[in-house]
Amino acid sequence: MPEATSSADFAQRAVDIARASVAAGGLPFGTVVVKDGAVLAEGSNCVRTTHDPTDHAEIRAIRAACRTLGTEYLTGCTVYAIAHPCPMCLAALYHCAPDEVVFLATREDCAPYLAGGSDKYFEPGTFYAEFAKPWDERRLPMRYLPRAGAVEVYRMFGERDGGETV
Fold first, then answer.
1. What is the C-alpha to C-alpha distance for residues 65 and 32, in angstroms, rounded to an integer?
2. Catalytic residue list
3. Higher pLDDT pick, 164 / 137
4. Mean pLDDT to the nearest integer, 2-18
5. Which residue has the higher pLDDT, 100 or 7?
6. I want to staple 27 with a disulfide (CB 3.0 to 4.6 A). Which of 33, 35, 45, 119 is the partner?
7. Region of 21 on the Ramachandran plot (φ > 0 left; ψ -120 to 50 alpha; else beta)
8. Concatenated DSSP letters for 33-83?
9. Quick check: 31 pLDDT over 70?
């Protein structure tokens, strides 16, 4: 891992990771997690090589950083991502709570190069528009099938952990 020491260096490292991913036939995403002025973890998008739709650069970097820190929180960290995170990565970032997320390109900047293809959901704006809709109006068919036992599991968790926030 190259030594980076400033915001500009960390941002450039995210670009370099994404560039290397594209050169290797992968997708154009790179992420760097920084704590106390040093790179804690890095990630590139490996969806095409692992065939895992969750194997995004941000997720890989979050996982590595959290393992290194021994916690599910990135308190005190800054995350540098080449582009505005997708909803999955954004949700993960909210959950791990870094001090800051720095993104280097907007969804609108990237959209002309990502739209189309065989994936009907891949166009960046589509995700955000879909999540803004009520669950029963989204393109991905969803069905609510209530089961009392489902909520019971959460009650058990709340009692076990004394209402600790997830």
1. 9
2. 58
3. 137
4. 86
5. 100
6. 45
7. alpha
8. EEETTEEEEEEE--HHHH--TT--HHHHHHHHHHHHHTSS--TTEEEEESS
9. yes
Give the separation between CA 133 and CA 122, rounded to whole angstroms. Answer: 17
| CA–CA separation, 31 and 14 (whole Å) | 5
Average pLDDT of the segment spanning 110-124 = 60
Tokens of 80: 């540098």
Whether residue 127 contacts residue 119, with contact meaning beta carbons closer than 8 Å, is answered with: no
Separation between Cα atoms, residue 16 and residue 53, nearest integer Å: 22
Whether 165 shows a pLDDT value over 70: the answer reads: no
Q: What distance in Å separates the CA atoms of residue 78 and residue 37, rounded to the nearest whole number?
A: 9
Instruction: Name the DSSP letter for residue 104.
Output: S
pLDDT tops 90 at residue 40: yes
Question: Token pair for residue 144?
Answer: 């609510």
Contact of 15 with 83, CB cutoff 8 Å: no
Average pLDDT for residues 61-74, to the nearest whole number? 98
Instruction: Answer whether 24's CB lies under 8 Å from 73's CB.
Output: no
